[in-house]
């Protein structure tokens, strides 16, 4: 627990570090990110051991997640050195500008300042202390105050010490990275006027509360919250005819992996009803789920939430178990679960929508049986709000053959409601790549602008634009100077260009 009297010192240290950190060269910032990645890799045995004890997650999963954490730090180091993310634009002074004389204007993105990051429970490395939000904020040049998750306190402290030591050894100023603990401390630091942005991964209830606090400040700040998703899947009859066993195995693996405690777990799967192929898929799903070993849930709070949600879904009219699963609670109130997979008709799903269409954080998913002739794009309009992902499984000819129009309409409808559309595969497993989008419309996230918390575009959350008009070169940031000492891409609009605006477009449309 961080004492309240210490929080002012934490915010002051972050604020004091903001200027020097923003001024650090791309090479220095990249070097620091790589140093953190190296330090995490070197401490892997100790950190994974702590994580196994505190979270119940298995060693292979945790080692893979720690590798992902160091990889994304290195990816952001490359992003910083590339410099494209700064979006440097230079308009030369132009006395012959078509609308009247134009002054010189130079624009770039700059760090927003200190950021508070609320760590997640279900990814104790990749979305926690040194995870994607921390990596992207540090890459942007923003000091980070990390609010630790109570589900893995010892791991949080050990990881934070590793990060702090690596940053200090790389020569970064004190205050660039700090850890606070406790609900009250998290709320208080969020409301400190020196904090300029916040990120969060967790429940809709907690995220909405924090987002409202951020918006209600005397000076509101951006709040990037990832709040959950049911990640709908649409499976066509042709897909089942071609690969029922493969679909069933992939589905069950996606639902049961990490005990279903993933924000991209497929919670609702729309399948064709009343066909031999559909019954075969259901049978294959039951076979794939049978005999799976129980998996520990992350903590007692998640166990209680899953137990309540599972009971609510099982009690809904028309719901039938495909794999009933089980939940065992031990003397320490830790839960151990096997997957619960259910089936329900579209009419019953529609009648109990509020009861069935919300996220169940744990190994539970629902197969919704859709009658022949139903327009899947219409189901998107009826049932989807905002989701992180949506997946479509098609037959081999449905993307280009006679069913092309229906498939295209479905994909277009999904793109209007989700952050990532998949054709084939399963949504669990979010690749750390430049093009990845991990976000979505409300209520999947709080950001209507469509930011991402995974991939190099995540850096944009912690930057803001500043234009410099007629500022002497010696007073400009390095990225805007003519000498360009940071060697970043500069997009220049030379004098005289405005007289030709529209000519290229006119030629293209002629």
Q: Could you name the CATH class of the largest domain?
A: Alpha Beta
Shape, principal axes of CA atoms: globular
- How many structural domains in the coordinates? 2
Number of strands: 19
Which percent range fits the helix content? 40-55%
Description:
Residues 5-379 form the Aldehyde dehydrogenase domain. GO terms for molecular function: oxidoreductase activity, acting on the aldehyde or oxo group of donors, NAD or NADP as acceptor. Residues 483-503 are annotated as: Disordered. InterPro entries: Ald_DH/histidinol_DH, Ald_DH_C, Ald_DH_N, Aldehyde_DH_dom, Aldehyde_DH_Superfamily, ALDH_KGSADH. It comes from Agromyces agglutinans. The structure is a single chain. The mean pLDDT is 95. This protein is of the alpha/beta class and 510 residues long. It has 2 domains: 4-85 and 112-227 and 451-463, Aldehyde Dehydrogenase, Chain A, domain 1 (3-Layer(aba) Sandwich), CATH 3.40.605; 233-423, Aldehyde Dehydrogenase, Chain A, domain 2 (3-Layer(aba) Sandwich). The chain has helices at 4-23, 26-42, 44-55, 59-82, 132-140, 153-169, 183-191, 204-216, 237-256, 276-289, 300-314, 346-351, 353-356, 376-383, 404-415, 503-509; strands at 88-91, 105-111, 115-118, 144-147, 177-180, 197-201, 223-226, 233-235, 268-272, 295-296, 320-323, 326-329, 335-338, 340-345, 364-370, 387-393, 418-423, 463-469, 490-493. Helix 2 packs across helix 6 (153-169), helix 3 crosses helix 4 (59-82) and helix 3 packs antiparallel against helix 6 (153-169). The termini are far apart. Strand 6 (197-201), helix 8 (204-216) and strand 7 form a beta-alpha-beta unit. It is 41% helix and 18% strand. 48% of the residues are buried. A 7-stranded mixed sheet has the order 11-14-15-9-8-16-17, sandwiched between helices.
């Amino acid at each position: 627990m961080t004492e309240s009297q210490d929080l002012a010192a934490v915010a002051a240290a972050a604020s004091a570090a903001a200027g020097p950190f923003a001024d650090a060269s791309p090479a220095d910032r990249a070097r620091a990110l790589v140093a953190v990645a190296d330090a995490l890799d070197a401490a892997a045995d100790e950190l994974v051991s702590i994580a196994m004890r505190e979270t119940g997650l298995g060693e292979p999963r945790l080692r893979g997640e720690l590798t992902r954490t160091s990889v994304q730090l290195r990816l952001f180091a490359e992003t910083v050195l590339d410099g494209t993310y700064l979006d440097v634009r230079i308009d030369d002074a132009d006395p012959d500008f078509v609308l009247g004389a134009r002054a010189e204007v130079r624009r770039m993105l700059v760090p927003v300042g200190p950021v508070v990051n609320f760590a997640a429970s279900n990814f104790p490395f990749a979305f926690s202390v040194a995870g994607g939000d921390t990596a992207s904020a540090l890459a942007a040049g923003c000091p980070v105050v990390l609010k630790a998750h109570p589900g893995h306190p010892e791991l949080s402290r050990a990881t934070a010490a590793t990060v702090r030591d690596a940053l200090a050894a790389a020569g970064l100023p004190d205050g660039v990275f700090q850890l606070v603990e406790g609900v009250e401390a998290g709320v208080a630091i969020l409301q400190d006027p020196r904090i300029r942005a916040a990120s969060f991964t967790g429940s809709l209830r907690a995220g909405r509360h924090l987002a409202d606090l951020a918006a209600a400040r005397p000076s509101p700040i951006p709040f990037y919250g990832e709040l959950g998703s049911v990640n709908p899947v649409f499976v066509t009859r042709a897909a089942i005819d071609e690969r029922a066993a493969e679909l069933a195995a992939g589905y069950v693996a996606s639902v049961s992996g990490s005990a279903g405690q993933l924000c991209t777990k497929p919670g609702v799967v729309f399948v064709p009803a009343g066909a031999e192929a559909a019954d075969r898929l259901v049978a294959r799903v039951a076979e794939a789920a049978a005999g799976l070993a129980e998996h520990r849930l992350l903590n007692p709070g998640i166990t209680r939430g899953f137990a309540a949600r599972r009971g609510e879904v099982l009690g809904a009219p028309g719901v039938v178990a495909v794999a009933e699963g089980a939940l065992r609670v031990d003397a320490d109130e830790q839960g151990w679960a096997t997957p619960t997979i259910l089936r329900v008709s579209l009419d019953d799903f529609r009648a109990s929508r509020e009861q069935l269409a919300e996220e169940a954080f744990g190994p539970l998913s629902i197969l919704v049986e859709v009658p022949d002739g139903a327009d899947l794009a219409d189901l998107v309009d009826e049932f989807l709000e905002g989701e992180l992902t949506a997946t479509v499984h098609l037959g081999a000819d449905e993307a280009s053959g006679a069913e092309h129009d229906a498939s295209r309409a479905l994909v277009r409808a999904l793109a209007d409601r989700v952050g990532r559309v998949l054709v084939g595969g399963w949504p669990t497993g979010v690749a750390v790549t430049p093009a990845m989008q991990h976000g979505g419309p409300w209520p999947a996230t709080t950001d209507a602008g469509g930011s991402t918390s995974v991939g190099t575009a995540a850096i944009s959350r912690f930057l803001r634009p500043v234009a410099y008009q007629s500022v002497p070169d010696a007073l400009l940031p390095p990225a805007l100077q003519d000498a360009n000492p940071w060697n970043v891409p500069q997009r220049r609009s030379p004098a005289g260009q405005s007289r030709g605006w529209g000519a290229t477009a006119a030629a293209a449309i002629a």
